[in-house]
User: Fold this.
Amino acid sequence: MTVLPLDPASTDPLYEQLRSQIAARATSGELPAGTRLPTVRQLAVDLGIGVRTVQRVYTELEADGIVVTEGRRGTFVASPSAPGRTADAVEAADAYAVAARRLGLTLAEATRVLTQRWGGSDVGGAG
Assistant:
């Protein structure tokens, strides 16, 4: 895995630049599930940043369900159905279901709205 250079002059801290880069690349599929990430030490050396900075990034990515650490085997990009992501999706679905019911939408209407938003379509509305 190649990491794009970080910008020390950016207003974003180095750990956030690295975290968002890995997260975006994993989410987009550029880093497919199962991709092994460099060790914390190796990535710190490659980027010229502190080991604690990289460790913080990996810890946050793991908490977000983007990567999984398998002990001495290493850290890998998680599958989209990893437990953390599934739990987040269920939580979001629960919130949407409650909101749709409160607005008086039928299941078909709520599904239509979600389908439109999923495709990025702005056609129609919620009612």
Notes: The radius of gyration is 19 Å. Residues 121-127 have pLDDT under 50 and may be disordered. The beta strands are 36-37, 67-69, 75-77.
